[in-house]
Predict the structure.
Amino acid sequence: MRKERQELKLGKGATIFVKSRLKRLPQEDETWEADFRALPKPMMQAETHYIGMVVAQPHGDYLAELEVKGRPSVNDLAILLAQAMQRPFTEGAHRPRRLYVRGHKQWQELFPHLAKLDIEIAVRPELPKVKEAYEDHLQQTRKAQRAKMPKPTADQASVEATFPAIAKWVRGYGHIEIGDQEGFGFVARALDYGGVVFEDDKSDTLAEALVVLEKGLSDWLKEQGIE
């Protein structure tokens, strides 16, 4: 469902972005980058979640983060920046001298209010420190998730050598599905981001399905000129 555009709400009872309170904070000669980036969406999750980050240049000090469901609004950015100013992760409460953001239209309503805090706003096509922090966040999240995974045995780990075409496919081209098709038989198929690329419904066992998929994907990769 599309998230409706939200009007900016400032002041007590609306968000923690209270200009009179933020104006009293000391101002440091710092440049901050602020942005929201989409988080990987699990297959069963209908709505994309985003993580907002505020990072200081030049050393990449991580000041604040905020996770939201659906497309971030101007109020989400206001909350994120207020957190970075009032309760930063690494330093005492303060305002920056400059703020870099990307050119999303929904942010513009907040710019005059930041100007009243003597914060200079600049739109940048890229935010390198946010990009680094975002990539590090994804790596740490994946590392934490993988720590809970059971480890394959030596025999199980050999599956990629046994089925190299399937291994190549799931690593960079799409995914596979194997199993009962709602009572219509045992189905094995390979899908890319546009739909079904290969399908077979003659297998009766998992081993047969894997062999059929390996042959079908091997042929497809050769047709595409992929070694």
